[in-house]
C-alpha cells in the first residue's frame, strides 16, 4: 500500500484517470454502490475519460436505469447539457424555458444546477 500511495502522490493525474475509469466501469456494469462510493470520495459524476465518455453515456448505453436516475438526481444531466452548449433560454412548445419547467415541477435542485452551471460557463468566458 505504501508504494501505491507513493505512486499516487507522484502522479495524481493517473489516479484521477483511474478513478474516472472506475466510475465509468461501475456505470457500465450497473454497480450503483461503486458509483455512490466514488462520488462520496470526490470523483465528479460528470467526469470524462480519454474518449469523452461519461458515466451517463455508459449507464444509458447499457440500460442501467438506476444509475441514470442517480446521475439525473445529482444534476449531472443538466450540467452536461449546458456545458455542451444547450441554450437555457430556448422555449418549448408551451413557451417555457427549462427554468420555467423546473419551477412548475418544483425542481429547485434543477434550477440551482442550471444557475450554477450557467454562472460557471459565463465565468470561464469572462475576460479581465
TrEMBL record:
Database matches in PROSITE patterns: ANK_REP_REGION, ANK_REPEAT
Keyword hit for Methyltransferase: no
Keyword Repeat on entry: yes
Lineage: superkingdom: Eukaryota
User: Which molecular function term from Gene Ontology is one that the record holds?
Assistant: ubiquitin-protein transferase activity
The UniProt entry's GO biological process terms, in alphabetical order, are: protein K6-linked ubiquitination
Q: Which UniProt keywords apply?
A: ANK repeat, Repeat
> InterPro entries, from UniProt?
Ankyrin_rpt, Ankyrin_rpt-contain_sf
The record's ANK repeats, renumbered to this chain, cover 51-93
The protein's matches in PANTHER family, at most eight in alphabetical order, are given as: ANKYRIN REPEAT DOMAIN-CONTAINING PROTEIN 39-RELATED, BRCA1-ASSOCIATED RING DOMAIN PROTEIN 1
Identification of the protein by name: Ankyrin repeat-containing protein
Q: Which organism is it from?
A: Cynara cardunculus var. scolymus (Globe artichoke)
Amino acid at each position: 500500500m505504501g508504494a501505491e500511495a507513493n505512486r499516487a502522490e507522484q502522479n495524481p493525474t493517473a489516479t484521477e484517470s483511474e478513478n474516472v475509469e472506475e466510475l465509468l466501469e461501475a456505470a457500465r456494469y450497473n454497480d450503483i454502490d461503486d458509483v455512490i462510493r466514488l462520488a462520496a470520495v470526490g470523483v465528479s459524476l460528470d467526469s470524462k475519460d480519454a474518449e469523452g465518455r461519461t458515466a451517463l453515456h455508459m449507464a444509458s448505453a447499457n440500460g442501467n436505469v438506476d444509475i441514470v436516475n442517480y446521475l439525473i438526481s445529482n444534476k449531472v444531466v443538466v450540467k452536461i447539457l449546458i456545458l455542451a452548449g444547450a441554450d437555457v433560454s430556448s422555449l418549448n412548445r408551451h413557451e417555457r424555458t427549462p427554468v420555467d419547467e423546473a419551477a412548475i415541477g418544483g425542481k429547485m435542485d434543477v434550477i440551482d444546477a442550471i444557475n450554477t452551471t450557467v454562472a460557471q460557463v459565463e465565468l470561464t468566458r469572462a475576460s479581465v
